[in-house]
Design goal:
Blueprint (H helix, E strand, L loop, with lengths): L4 E10 L9 E4 L5 E3 L5 E8 L2 E7 L6 E6 L6 E5 L23 E5 L1 H7 L5 H4 L6 E5 L8 E5 L7 E5 L2 E2 L20 E8 L13 E7 L7 E9 L3 E9 L7 E12 L8 E13 L3 E15 L5 E2 H4 L3 H11 L3 H9 L13 E16 L4 E24 L8 E3 L2 E3 L1 E26 L2 E23 L10 E21 L4 E19 L5 E6 L2 E14 L2 E12 L3 H5 L10 E13 L3 E22 L5 E21 L4 E23 L5 E10 L6 E9 L5 E10 L2 E2 L9 E2 L2 E14 L2 E11 L7 E11 L1 E10 L4 E9 L1
Parallel strand pairs: 1-7, 11-14, 35-43
Antiparallel strand pairs: 1-4, 2-3, 2-5, 5-6, 8-13, 9-10, 11-12, 13-14, 15-16, 15-45, 16-17, 17-18, 18-19, 19-21, 20-44, 21-22, 22-25, 23-24, 25-26, 26-27, 27-28, 28-29, 28-30, 30-31, 31-32, 32-33, 33-34, 34-35, 35-36, 35-37, 37-38, 38-41, 39-40, 41-42, 42-45, 43-44
Family: Belongs to the TonB-dependent receptor family.
Protein name: TonB-dependent receptor
InterPro entries: Beta-barrel_TonB, Beta-barrel_TonB_sf, CarboxyPept-like_regulatory, Plug_dom, Plug_dom_sf, TonB-dep_rcpt-like
Length: about 800
């Protein structure tokens, strides 16, 4: 039977009857959404005949909610009053792309985050967005996890939390395990693909994640969230909030614990975190203090699984045992394990880290034309990983040989810890000035400092020699400053055409002194300066359609290993990226769609080649020319009140024009070189596809089937078929049911069944080679779990 559908037309103005262009008009259930045109008019289509609640909102104005009955409502006019208080989103506005920005982005709101939050790390909540590939060392999304956008790993993805950089200053990576259950304190996320808009922290060479933490709610609340699932996984979360007290003060808190045995043998995680926030809100001021912390203890699973064990190849496993000289215990561990094999068996082979964050955020609306937001921040991190190392040479630890009788002992079994003790602090700021309706300026930037101590200790040795537990056999100190300032200019040239310019200057000072793990002396000092311009234009075809194009340049400094693995007084060359984005957006209410093409052209990209330096350390090399080109599509369509479809697709070509691989030659010494031309960049699938069908048969209940396909990926840059991750397709089912009773505001039952077809696949890996008689290649994989589930119960008061 066909379902009757109606259309609502109307006008949105301010309190002086001036039309508001770009105001959002949506139904309370979120199924139909549109925006007003230049005359403030809107048309909301695809409505089921009957009564609906409409919500109309515009930045800087108080949202209005009204019940409307289709067929009876004519001449709708919504007059919005200026907000009495400054908006919470002002703290991230300067670093985000807007509806008419010439940037490729995706917004993830709190509802979508909550629907997908079963305790897995944040990358898995973002797994269904365009061009994203995620992986988990322990195989089930808890513990060490990773994310790639357009094939670029976490060191090339700029992460900010309330505009404050989160990437590690030295490695430039992001360790989500240090922020367990952080998704429970996130209001929304914007993912920008490509260079994106200017932000704070390291340059975006694949994308950016701009995270805004939860703001205050209007009234008091309490919430208890619990999850249980496969691999003895538990998540317990308690959230409390006062709501706005007298409209001016609020306090919010969260306490979380996550434990899991992991899919990989002994790949356990024990994670704890909290989030505290207090705010003061005046008519023109917002002051917020956030304090959050994470503690993690994870059993190491970062060695992966040898190819022979992954393929259950018994002769191959025996050859691996012989090649690598495994003792009987380790050999039996390999032979008797399945695809969840873990080479580590030492009881305390763990990673341990603590991280505390302090953020003081302030925003002020000076007038209807000028506003400011700024932040002071401090992060304290400290931790170590512990490992058993058999048969280590004493001299490698600065220890003297042990003499027992007439025997001189030069090696020993030992347990070592490698520590990182760091401080990160600084400030961010942004002034937003809008002198007229057609012109806007944003002046922003940041200054941050990082201090990190790296050192190692031997806490036990069969032959202790002249060592002691508190002796540091290596220690080096790193210091880094990062200053940037940017100016963003927006011009509405005509009713349909707008331009933007975004100019950023960034200066870095980096220094490392002391001794490294191999006892080499370090004396690194570099002061790179970067200018990163971005230009673009946006053209409004109609209220529902928009075209955009942009050209951006980004420069990025090398990471810690790039510096310390090169000979003294030799510096790696920074990387350069030129990014072109052209896109089309469509928003008809029932249908939201976007299509974009991009080109990312690298100069001096740093890649792993297998080459070693003068002391035998592997390091990355600059390759002259490489590129990524692709097309991405993203759409959501409300088919009917009961069915909705979400889908996205990314197709790309990712190439290095000339690449040279080096492998160790154990027969003749030195290394052998192999040259390749026009090869695929490693871990860059040519296709990433996602589709989700949502079914809502009755109020409060939703069922979704999710399907994800990732094309094959090469483990290195040689495009060799024997060294790749096979393509994989994974299907998930998510169920959710909301209801309420008595004094309980809401109860949510959720179920996530992942990999329902029990596909055996690996989403990450690595490879290396050497020549010993013949050329030997060792491939390792990180298998992901087969069919597994997470069941949640969330109660809100």
């Amino acid at each position: 039977m066909a379902i009757a559908q109606d259309t609502l037309n109307g006008l949105v103005t301010d309190n002086l009857n001036r039309p508001l262009a770009g105001a959002t008009v949506r139904t309370a259930d979120g199924r139909q959404v549109t925006q007003t045109n230049e005359q403030g008019r809107f048309s909301l289509t695809g409505l089921k005949t009957g009564r609906h609640t409409l919500i109309v909102s515009f930045i800087g104005y108080t949202a209005q909610r009204r019940q409307i009955t289709t067929g009876e409502a004519t001449g709708l006019i919504f007059r919005l009053d200026p907000a009495s208080f400054i908006a919470e989103d002002v703290v991230v506005r300067a670093t985000r792309a807007g509806d008419k920005s010439a940037a490729t982005y995706k917004n993830i709101d709190r509802q979508e985050i909550e629907q997908n939050n079963f305790g897995q790390d944040l990358p898995f909540i973002l797994n269904n967005t365009p061009g994203v590939v995620t992986t988990s060392d322990a195989g089930a999304g808890i513990g060490y996890t990773g994310i790639r956008i357009r094939g670029s790993d976490a060191t090339r993805i700029n992460i900010t939390v309330n505009g404050i950089p989160y990437n590690d200053s030295e490695s430039q990576g992001t360790f989500w395990v240090n922020m367990p259950d952080f998704a429970s304190s996130v209001e929304n996320i914007q993912i920008q693909r490509g260079v994106g808009t200017s932000t704070n922290g390291a340059g975006a060479f694949g994308g950016s994640l701009n995270i805004q933490t939860s703001g205050s709610q209007d009234r008091p609340y309490a919430e208890v969230n619990n999850t249980f699932g496969s691999f003895n996984t538990w998540k317990n979360t308690l959230k409390l909030g006062t709501g706005w007290i007298d409209g001016k003060y609020s306090f919010d808190g969260r306490l979380s614990r996550i434990k899991s045995d992991g899919y990989i043998d002994r790949g356990s995680s024990n994670l704890k975190s909290y989030f505290l926030s207090g705010a003061y809100r005046g008519k023109k001021d917002l002051l917020r203090l956030n304090v959050f912390s994470g503690t993690e203890r994870t059993y190491q699973a970062w060695n992966g699984v040898p190819e022979s064990r992954y393929l259950d190849d018994l002769p191959g496993m025996q050859a691996y045992i012989d090649r690598n000289g495994l003792n009987e215990t380790d050999a039996q561990n390999l032979l008797q394990s399945g695809r969840s094999y873990n080479s580590f068996t030492y009881r305390d082979q763990t990673d341990n880290y603590w991280q505390d964050h302090y953020q003081l955020l302030y925003a002020r609306q000076f007038s209807d034309k000028l506003s400011f937001n700024g932040a002071l921040h401090y992060t304290r991190g400290k931790g170590y990983f512990e490992e058993l190392k058999p048969g280590e040479d004493l001299e490698d630890y600065g220890l003297e040989p042990v003499i027992i009788g007439t025997d001189t002992i030069g090696s020993t079994d030992l347990v070592r810890r490698r520590w990182l003790d760091n401080h990160f602090y600084g400030l961010t700021y942004a002034f937003d000035y809008r002198p007229s309706a057609v012109l806007s300026f944003t002046l922003g930037g940041a200054y941050n400092e990082y201090r990190g101590d790296h050192f190692g200790q031997v806490i036990w040795a069969q032959y202790a020699s002249n060592g002691s537990n508190d002796r540091r056999y290596y220690q080096n100190d790193a210091f880094k400053t990062d200053f940037n300032t940017y100016l963003k200019i927006g011009l509405q040239a005509t009713k349909s055409l707008s331009f933007f310019a975004d100019l950023q200057y960034r200066r870095i000072f980096y220094q490392v002194t002391g001794t490294e793990k191999n006892l080499n002396v370090l004396n690194v000092r570099d002061v790179p300066n970067f200018f990163n311009p971005k230009l673009g234009a946006s053209y409004t075809i109609s209220p529902a359609q928009n075209l955009y194009a942009s050209y951006s340049i980004a420069n990025k400094e090398p990471n810690r290993d790039d510096y310390i693995n090169l000979p003294e007084n030799v510096l790696p060359v920074p990387e350069n990226l030129q990014n072109v984005e052209v896109g089309y957006r469509l928003n008809t209410g029932a249908l939201h769609a976007g299509l974009n093409v991009y080109g990312m052209f690298y100069k001096d990209q740093l890649v792993t080649t297998g080459k070693i330096n003068d002391v035998g350390e592997y390091f990355r090399q600059n390759v002259d020319r490489s590129y990524r080109m692709g097309i991405e599509a993203d759409a959501s369509y409300v088919i009917s009140p009961k069915f909705a479809l979400n889908a996205n697709a990314a197709f790309s070509r990712n190439k290095i024009r000339n690449f040279t691989e080096f492998i160790d030659d154990y027969d003749n010494g030195g290394q052998q070189a192999y040259s390749f031309t026009n090869t695929d960049i490693s871990f860059s699938p040519r296709q990433v596809l996602f589709a989700e069908l949502v079914y809502k048969p009755f109020s409060g209940f939703a069922a979704a089937y999710q399907s994800k396909y990732v094309g094959k990926q090469y483990l290195d840059n040689t495009q060799t078929e024997s060294r790749k991750l096979d393509a994989y397709h994974v299907g998930n089912i998510r169920l959710g049911y909301d209801f309420s009773f008595s004094s309980v505001r809401n109860v949510n039952l959720g179920l996530l069944v992942s990999n329902i077809f029990n596909k055996m696949y690996a989403s990450n890996g690595y490879t290396y080679g050497y020549k010993s008689g013949t050329v030997v290649r060792e491939n390792f994989y990180f298998p992901q779990a087969g069919t597994n589930f997470l069941l949640s119960l969330n109660v809100r008061f």
